[in-house]
Design a protein that fits this description.
Elements lengths: L1 H6 L5 H16 L10 H9 L25 E9 L4 E10 L5 E12 L1 H18 L5 E5 L2 H8 L7 E4 L1
Parallel strand pairs: 1-4, 4-5
Antiparallel strand pairs: 1-2, 2-3
């Protein structure tokens, strides 16, 4: 559209938007891949009128945040790895028994695989909890393997739960 405006006549913005939407509609509907399941992708795809093809949800799971017991702090942690292996990060948020914000952390983990990143997020969460003097901590993460591995030891003073 920029070249058309530069070398031909001026073009109206509304015409440019219409042409871009039409071309995106044609190209977008020619792909057979499925979209990621997030609202930003969905809104963009719907804006351009592209038919949505979402991936299959194998095991739907209802998840909600629950308050920790009185005198306990809940730490929700999660991590992300860009590829296999690739750059990884992790983070967590500390909330009290009334849901109040106590603290948070994030860490860059350099090049990792997913499982190693998941264990590092547990280590970071425990180190941060220790730094701010927390003793009664309930740690929740989305890795059943990590939760089962950590809770397999009887002498761990932390309470773990897979979300």
């Amino acid at each position: 559209m920029q070249n058309y405006a530069r070398f031909q006549d001026k073009i109206e913005v509304s015409t440019a938007i219409s042409v871009i939407k039409d071309l995106t509609f044609l190209v977008g509907n020619s792909f057979k891949a499925s979209m990621k399941n997030d609202m930003l992708d969905f809104n963009v795809i719907k804006f351009f009128g592209i038919n949505t093809r979402t991936g299959k949800v194998l095991h739907p799971l209802f998840v909600r945040w629950e308050f920790p017991s009185p005198d306990w702090v809940k730490i929700n942690i999660d991590g992300a790895v860009r590829g296999y292996p690739d750059l990884a990060t992790c983070g967590g948020i500390f909330r009290g028994s009334m849901g109040e914000f106590i603290g948070a952390f994030s860490a860059f983990l350099e090049v990792q695989i997913v499982l190693i990143a998941e264990f590092y997020e547990v280590i970071h969460a425990m180190e941060e909890a220790q730094k701010i003097g927390l003793t009664n901590v309930r740690l929740e993460c989305d890795s059943a393997l990590v939760c089962n591995t950590v809770t397999a030891r009887n002498n761990v003073p932390w309470m773990f739960r897979n979300r």
